[in-house]
Specification:
The structure is a single chain. This protein has about 500 residues and is mainly beta. It has two helices and 38 strands. The protein has helices spanning about 5-20, 25, and strands at about 40-45, 50, 55-65, 75-80, 90-95, 100, 105-110, 120-125, 135-140, 150-155, 160-165, 170-175, 180, 185, 195-205, 205-210, 215-220, 230-235, 245-250, 255, 265-270, 285-290, 295-300, 310-320, 325-335, 340-350, 355, 365-370, 375-380, 390-395, 400, 410-415, 415-420, 425-430, 440-445, 465, 480-485, 500. The strands form eight sheets. It has a seven-stranded mixed β-sheet, with no helix packed on it. Strands 31-30-32-28-35-36-37 form a seven-stranded antiparallel β-sheet, with no helix packed on it.
Length: about 500
């Protein structure tokens, strides 16, 4: 409940009490209300710090909250970093104008509420400190009487460093089949992992992970036809990984190749969880716990296929499927009597959805306007939560340039994906010159810069021709669009979209 609503509610309760029987006796009570005071401080900081010879950053945040919206924040705030417990183990360095140092005790003062309630400093192991030595740094924050809060962090000399193994890509997967998702981890640091390890797998493009391990949480995508509908697995492992050791999953994860998969991707990463911390999930995620035995980390056999330099990697999956893309073009007279709008639509008849794992375009429409017409501007359709791609000036079959008015040849794009049974629309504003005689233009859909092989089973609908009406006879009628192949009926797809005009250059 917001502070404003809380105050309104309190005022309403006061009115009700004033009108209730016996209210006079309550109102006559002269006892003063106790003054509101701030509550204790909350300090957010890592509880464990692994330190090496290089200085590493540390971030600490403190806050005050008394449980009531009428309690003011303390104006004068003091934050103290006491690192005396790190003697012979590590040293901290604080560079902040709010702070003064007394040896390894740093006192930092906020004098008004415009100053931030956080602190950044660095910590570094002493050169003579023995590997595995531990110490404690203590934080104290206060905003006046009754607000003192403390927190501690255990500091250990030595740094575990997990790197993740490369997983070979999967090709020619059958729709409905299960694929294995193995994993290897190696600790290339000088200290064994001293906390739990969380491994996250996130799949997009139509993969569905099987829920069969009790120490793993699963999130399934909401729409199998949506190319970006994510599925994920997060598993937590308590066992330490010794310095220099390589481990693997006791059993590989398995994922089903969904009915709409053409290309898919699994991103995976490992992290060390702070003591008491849990993996974070989106607030609206439907998290389901796995069943069956626990998945564990066991000593790895063989050498594997190499390792990344860090704890993040990805693997691609391609399926034996296809996407039937079709082009459509619809011309309408614009509000001005001397021009038209040209709707360019890419329809995906499936069965596969198209998904790009980066910022590349999954498809594009090569459009050549009729002679004696030029484009003056473009729009692109926008759904509630994702924008479709812009149009570019055609330079060659392999090169485009930013949109520029006054030309006939353009390329309009479909970015991150297009689901099976869905369409994507782009709109060009077109203007004729006095010599336009009703000639035809062409629109051709083809794979985009993502380089996804569509295996399109019906190429006849990739290409359409179109013509505009007579400029001197404006009409709201849709001009007739002739399909490039005789006898093909143009499919008119209705897409609920909001158009947004590109700012004029």
């Amino acid at each position: 409940m917001t502070p404003r609503r809380t105050l309104l509610r309190a005022a309403l309760i006061a009115v009700v009490l004033a009108l209730a029987p016996g209210a006079a006796a309550v109102a006559a009570d002269p006892s003063p209300s106790p003054l509101a005071t701030p509550g204790p401080t909350t300090i957010q900081a890592d509880r464990q710090l692994d330190v090496g010879p290089d200085a590493q950053p540390v971030h600490v945040v403190w806050s005050f909250y008394g449980g009531r919206p009428d309690i003011p924040l303390p104006v004068h705030q003091t934050f103290v970093i006491d690192a005396r417990g790190l003697a012979g183990i590590a040293r901290i360095a604080v560079v902040d104008p709010r702070c003064t140092a007394d040896g390894q005790v740093f006192t930092c003062v906020n004098k008004d509420l415009s100053q931030l309630s956080n602190m950044d400093f660095t910590i570094q192991a002493d050169a003579s400190a023995a590997l595995g030595s531990t110490g404690t740094v203590k934080y104290t924050a206060s905003g006046g009487p009754g607000t003192r809060g403390t927190a501690r962090a255990k500091v250990t000399v030595g740094v575990p460093h997990l790197v993740i193994g490369k997983v070979p890509g999967v090709t020619h997967a059958r729709i409905g089949s299960r694929i294995d998702v193995p994993l290897r981890l190696r600790n290339t640091g000088d200290l064994a992992t001293d906390r739990r390890i969380a491994v996250h797998w996130v799949g997009a493009g139509g993969l569905v992970f099987d829920r069969k391990f009790s120490n793993c949480d699963y999130i399934s995508g909401s729409d199998r036809a949506e190319p970006d509908s994510p599925t994920s697995v997060t598993c937590v492992f308590p066992a330490p990984v010794a310095a220099g050791a390589t481990v693997e999953l006791s059993s590989p994860l398995t994922a089903t190749v969904g009915a709409h998969v053409l290309t898919a991707r699994i991103d995976y990463r490992a992290e060390l969880l702070q003591n008491g911390a849990r993996p974070l999930y989106p607030s609206d995620a439907d998290v389901q716990a796995g069943t069956g035995p626990a998945l564990t980390l066991v000593p790895a056999s063989g050498t594997g296929d190499g390792f990344e330099s860090g704890a993040t990697s990805a693997v691609g999956v391609s399926a034996d499927s296809s996407a039937d893309l079709a082009a459509a073009a619809t011309a309408k007279h614009a509000a001005r009597a001397d021009g038209w709008t040209l709707d360019l639509t890419v329809l995906n008849h499936g069965p596969a959805s198209l998904f790009a794992s980066d910022d590349q375009y999954v498809a594009e429409v090569d459009v050549v306007l009729p002679r004696h017409t030029v484009a003056t501007d473009y729009e692109h359709a926008e759904s509630e939560d994702s924008a479709y791609g812009p149009c570019f000036l055609w330079v060659s079959d392999t090169e485009t340039a930013p949109f520029e008015a006054g030309h006939r040849h353009y390329v309009c794009t479909v970015p991150w994906g297009i689901g099976a049974g869905q369409n994507v629309e782009s709109v060009l504003s077109v203007k004729p010159d006095k010599n336009y005689d009703g000639g035809k233009g062409t629109a051709t859909v083809r794979p985009g810069s993502a380089g996804i092989a569509l295996h399109d089973p019906t190429t006849a609908n990739d290409h359409v021709t179109f013509a505009f009406g007579t400029p001197s006879a404006p009409s709201d009628r849709t001009a007739l669009i002739a399909a490039g192949a005789a006898g093909v009926v143009l499919l008119c797809a209705v897409a609920l979209v909001v158009r947004r005009r590109r700012p004029s250059r």
